[in-house]
Amino acid sequence: MFFWQARLLYPERPWLRVIEEGHTIGTHTLKHRNLAKLSYQQQLLDLKQSVNEIESITGTRVAYFRPPFGQYNQETLRAAEELGLETVMWKIASIDWELKNTPEQIVSNVADHLQDGAIILLHELKQTVEVLPELIQTIRKKGFEFTILNKS
Ligand SMILES: [Zn+2]
Q1: What pairing do the DSSP bridges indicate for beta strands 92-93 and 2-4?
Q2: I need a labelling partner for 100 at 20 to 30 A (CA). Which of 41, 126, 127, 140 fits?
């Protein structure tokens, strides 16, 4: 699942490939503000606009949401619910954004913490893409498989 900031999802971005390859695009808000610092109305508006923008470009319904920085409060959850969005956090943080020079550590950060149902946090960074095939292979070798989160 790809959580996308609406400001970064414009026609030239590879969103079509993401969808065609069977992935889901969720919202990561308009521009990555810390929602916990905004009022309920501001949060609602941000989420609503981000969903509208992503949906109007991709033509697919946005059903999932990940709060920027993993920061949220009760009003964030209420705003998400109001819009029919499921809030998705994560269980395993790869810390890939800090591992530009030691991408191998992305693999061990994840592989050492695997458990059933765990959601893994990754970013579309150069170092992450570099080790992704190895990461997937390592996870499968340990006997886990990938599933698609699906509401329906
Ligand atoms: Zn983020």
Answers
A1: unpaired
A2: 140
